[in-house]
Amino acid sequence: MDLAGAYEGILFDVAGGFTLLLLMTAGVVCIVWDIFSNDDPVLPVLAAMTCVVAAGWEVRGLDAGSSTAFYDLIRAYGLTSYINITLLISALVSIVLSVPYLNRIRRGYGEVYALILFATAGAVMLASANSLVTVFVGLETMSIALYILVGLVRQGGGGIESALKYFLLGAFSTGFFLYGIALLYGATGTMILPDLAAGFEARGSMMLLFWAGVALFLVGFLFKVSAVPFHMWTPDVYQGAPTPLTGYMSTASKAAAFAALILVLYYGLGDLAATKWQTALAVVALVTMVGGNIFALVQNNVKRMLAYSSVAHAGYVLVALVAGTGEGYAGAAYYLLIYSFMNLGAFGVMALLEWDQKEGSEQTIDSLSGVGLRKPILGVVMTVFMFSLIGFPPFGGFFGKIAVFAPAIEAGFTWLVIVGVLASALSGYYYLRVLYVFWMRPQSWSAPQVQAHKFPVPSLSAAVLVACAVVLTVIGFVPVVRDLPMVYFDVAFTGGTP
Amino acid sequence: MEIALSWYLTLAAVLFAIGVAGVLLRSNLIIILMSVELMLNAVNVTLVAFSQSMGDVSGQILVFFVMSVAAAEAAIGLAIVIAIFRNKLSVDINDFNLFKW
Amino acid sequence: MNPDLTILLIVLLPAAGAVLNGLLPLFWPRLRKHETVIGTVGTGMVAVPFVLTVVLFVQGYGDPHVATFYTWMGAGDFTVSVAYRVDHLSLIMALVVTGVGALIHLYSVGYMHGDRSYWKFFAYLNLFIFMMLNLVLADNLLVMFLGWEGVGLCSYLLIGFWYEDLKNSAAATKAFVVNRIGDFAFLLAMFILVREVGSLDFATIFAGAEAMSQGTISAVVLLLFIGATGKSAQIPLFVWLPDAMAGPTPVSALIHAATMVTSGLYLLARLSSLVLLAPTVMGVIALTGALTALVAATIAMAQTDIKRVLAYSTVSQLGFMFMATGVGAFFVAIFHVVTHAFFKACLFLGSGSVIHGMHEVEHSLRHKGYRGAFDPQDMRTMGGLKRFMPRTGRTYLMATLAISGIPLTAGFFSKDEILFKAFEFGLDGHAFAWIVWAVGLGTALLTAFYMTRSYMLTFEGAPRWPRADEVQPHESPWTITMPLVVLASLSLIGGFIGLPHLAEKIGLTNWIHGYLAGHEGHPGPVAEAATQTHVGMPAEVGLILLGSAIAVVGVWWSWRFFACHGLGGDALIQGRFKGLYRWWKRSYYWDEFYDRTVVRGVIGGAEHGLAPLDVRLVDGAVNAVAKAAQRISDCVRRLQTGVVQAYALAIVLGVIVVIALIVS
What is the ipTM of this complex? Predict the structure, then answer.
């Protein structure tokens, strides 16, 4: 092999995996920096800048067609860039929201930012995986960082119990996931996703092994996106975890897992007996949508309610995947972007409010009485987030729902979409209840209490939340912005067979 | 003499099932952690067996990753167990149901 | 200038005015004091669009120019977009809206002086202009409906502008509710159109009309007409308009005389080629218009509140316009819309000026210790005002002559054209047109009579308010009289844009006919009923003479009658018509009728029939679903035991199910 060619190849690989490498490096730098200068306020700035630079790099890659790097281990550009941008936005917002949160409990926790970077690196690897190995490593990198993050802020026993549950069930499901990988490997003789179908057909007569492998493999993803019945960890973990990180978990880790699932379904399984996994996913999507919304109905803890609602949203995305078409995958990826904005926003508002509440009433819905009037900015953005989460026009969530439901109808899953629409009608109840309490119930505070709980909304956090709300509104009103992502999906999913 | 692939696979499946059963049935956190490790290693056996029978190394490469991940998970798991033990002076899994419903 | 930009400015400037006048003073109460600034901004934001509309008008858009600014979303073939359409029809309406609107804004600067919510008034008024422009410029029914609802909202806000008085807010609510009934029909028509044509664009609707069945078209047109009866105050939905006079007088002039109430006509004219496909419904429209015109004119005879006279006269004139629509002469309807805008706005503004003066009288009286009742709008306490308010009196007289149809005034041309078209349609074999024509003639006589009565009682004779020798009103300031003069001049000369057919003999053409309906081979935006018969020249001359004679006789008779008897004239009329007069006086007990039947019926039915049904069945079902969902939720949440191993078990079960589903 000639040297110049090898050099070019290395350059190409580094460019393709730049985000991954940058996040890893920055994470290590953060850790080391934290050793020498404990809880330095520069750390969040560094982490945030890393995300911005990486996102800028990915924007550059949007227009390029999807290609692979590092000996087919990862996928770069195109759709991957799009998903990575979603992940990086989520990380950025979480970092910004974490700063006042951690300051408030008088802990700097410099390593939080390093861990967010590591988790994001794992998510990026997962979302750009082109091999079963990278799927596994990415998923585990992300998960391990998240286990630590959940348990890091130890307030009473809550956080650590959440970490324990998350960890145990995560490791448990990893076992199944890994078993699925092993069976798939055995049935196909390859780890590279696009070669799976061909390998399966070449080896032949591995029916049971292969489909059992697919099933177990899917379960790993379904656990991560918290689909019913693999969702049970979600409310317990979200409730106990530090709120800004809950937002991160409910968006970035979900988006990454869904992205990998899309890659597996699109590149890995392709047209291989689609009805088999379609049926399974349809059933899961059905129980997820119904279950998530039913569970959310009676929750009094807002974080717990949002956790169940994120279960329901995973169900909506699954509906798009059930369609098994390019439009479906595009719709799912689109929904994840919009969903990231609204869920990050909702958890962000809760993160700010957590310190604005009476003792002992943290996070309960009653503690939100009259917040809208007391803190109008938070009230207005929360209104946007809630309406968007319901899928109420003209906000972004409405168009996200159209994007996930329309392909399923075209693919003949009308019954599933009907259930989805009915289930999301149910969701109006608990989302609007938040707004009702926000705006229409007078706060039950005495004047001294209000005085004692005076908590200015940090301007940077407010700016980030307002930005999320503006994006959702702009998506609703400006068709050009709304249709922008679709251009990249066209490149990703209609450019012929991979 | 060559041992047939199916023996390895069966062994791994049994080990995996034992691991699952351990997670489901034991109440001591440490034992549950060990059961999870058992599950992962059962998969490792599967991977190595497939790799060997197909003459393809990528399965064995994955095993290295799995081992390192398992080590990391064990480290975190034990750290969590220690933290939780300090809090409650218990490693019984049934003692931790603060969050429910 | 780029026409798209011009259109955008025309529409958006009033919106900007509404935002500036509405939001800034809302947040900075200090700004509320600056009446000059608020008034200038408010007026300017309408005057500039008027100039821009004139520019477009001069450039002349013979072919429709459609400017799509924004497409909100598309679902399949159905798109929702904000598109404006500039053609002769929308231009002429936009001219009226912005032109009369600007004058009335100017008028309001003086009229509303000192009002606590001066800024709010101008914000609402600007918002109204914005909505009205959306209504007339819309290229599809959806944007038009947006404007339609928007003007309804502004009308509600402005009728109830002095909402501290419960009577006013009740009137506002009444207007809103009655309008909603019409809007509902409008919505139904849109639903049918979406189902049948798949689009709400005017062009697509016209193209798709041929494929629709006769029944469907008739249903659509009928529903649209019901929508129009709401907004344009026709029987059976006219009851809100007289009460709407509770709003400030400029509002009555702008919204409830010149612009908003004509939007029903505009709707039918816009869809004229569709309306022409439903001849039966056209008969209904014409007869409804005729009946409304007659009923309202008789009611107006017996009113003593100056604004109520004008309100019923508006209803009556709107009836005339619907007559024109019903006989397929849409351009004449629009012609009458234009001339009516001139003279009715002038009359209303004149009455506003009078009320302004009478308020002054009331103020002085109270100052001098007068404790009796005093209604500044009651014509019985007026009289002889032309001495104190000469400019108001003169302009009011001019507009009165115009509305009466005295030859060569604006009203003469448009009303005559309506009667002529009805006559022609009758000759063409449509029997109902004869009824329409006859009723139209009778109503014209009544109109001349009661309008002259209102002038006589207000401006002629001796002052009838208490202590008239000490207390005297003064002429209003220039911001009030200037619009009066402009509008009065237009009421005199504005009719020349629509010369009768006869004028062709001396080489003059009917400009507005050519402008709206187009010429041979080049149709305009407004369709026209094709007639086989041609009215001969002698007949036409005869008709014109008849119309002129009726107007002159009406005015002359009324003038003599009230000059002679003064206020006693009313008593004489009452003595003559007795029972009938009581019916007029009480508006045929229309409100009472609705109250007994519809309102009580609905409320009673709701209380005794539907409420239990609603509570038990509907609410019951809804609550049952909600309860069931909650109960289910409460049950299943127990599954979430908080014990990790239970969760792990769920995962294992899930794994088994997924494997079973996939492998099977």
Answer: 0.96
Closest to A94 in 3D by CA, of A464, A490, A419: A464
Out of C632, C634, C662, the one facing A211 most closely (by C-beta) is C662
* Nearest Cα to Cα of residue C265 among C303, C214, C227, C220: C227
Q: Cβ contacts (< 8 Å) between A171 and chain B: which residues?
A: 36, 73, 77
Q: Name the E strands within A90-243.
A: none
Kindly state the tokens that stand for C482.
């200037």
Interacting residues of C231 by C-beta distance below 8 A, sequence separation 6+ = C148, C151, C152, C179, C182, C260, C261, C263, C264, C267
Name the one residue in this structure whose structure tokens are 């799009």.
Answer: A82
pLDDT digits (tens, 9 = 90+) for A112-161: 999 999 999 999 999 999 999 999 999 999 999 999 998 887 655 577 88
Contact C290, C319 (CB under 8 A): yes
* Distance, C-alpha C212 to centroid of its chain: 30
Among residues A361, A253, A349, A254, the alpha carbon closest in space to that of A301 is found at A361
CB distance A185–B87 less than 8 Å?
A: no
Residue of chain C whose Cα is closest to the Cα of A177:
C655
pLDDT of amino acid C584: 80
Phi, psi of A41 (to 5 degrees): -65, -10
Range of A366's domain?
Answer: 273-498
Which residues in chain C have Cβ-Cβ distances shorter than 8 Å to A285?
Answer: none
Number of domains in chain A: 1
* B100 closest CB neighbour out of C640, C645, C648: C640
- The number of C-alpha atoms within 13 Å of C321 and in the hemisphere containing its C-beta is 34
Establish if C541 belongs to a structural domain. yes
C657 at interface of A, judged by CB pairs closer than 8 A: yes
Q: Which of A400, A448, A95 is closest to A244 using CA atoms?
A: A95
Residues of B in contact with C641 (CB under 8 A): 97, 100
CB contact under 8 A, A179 and B76: no
| Domain range for C426 | 287-585
CA distance to partner chain A, nearest, from residue B100 (Å): 6
- Name chain A contacts of C650, Cβ cutoff 8 Å: 229-230, 232
In a domain, C170, yes or no: no
Domain ranges in chain B are 7-91
**Residue C166: Cβ within 10 Å count:** 9
**Concatenated DSSP letters for A39-91?**
T-THHHHHHHHHHHHHHHHHHHHSSSPPEEETTTTEEESTHHHHHHHHHHHHH
Residue C101 domain flag: no
Among the listed residues C271, C357, C260, C236, the one whose alpha carbon sits nearest the alpha carbon of residue C306 = C357
Indicate if C368 and C450 belong to the same structural domain: yes
CA distance C525 to C271: 9
Q: Between chains, do B76 and A236 touch, taking CB under 8 Å as contact?
A: no
Position A274 pLDDT exceeds 80: no
Record: contact C642-B25, CB cut-off 8 A? no
Domain boundary among the residues C532, C565, C585 is at C585
pLDDT in tens, C12-65: 999 998 888 888 888 888 888 888 888 888 899 999 999 999 988 888 766 778
Q: Give me the number of domains chain C comprises.
A: 2
In A, which residues are within 8 Å of B73 by CB distance? 140, 144, 167, 171, 174
Q: Is B16 within 8 Å of A175 when comparing Cβ atoms?
A: yes
Can you say whether residue A289 is alpha, beta or left, with left for phi > 0 and alpha for psi between -120 and 50 degrees? alpha
Second-level CATH architecture of B7-91: Orthogonal Bundle (1.10)
Contact status, residue C165 vs residue C154, Cβ threshold 8 Å: no
- The SS3 of residue A17 is coil
Q: What are the residue ranges of helices labelled H in C28-61?
A: 35-59
CA distance C659 to C664: 8
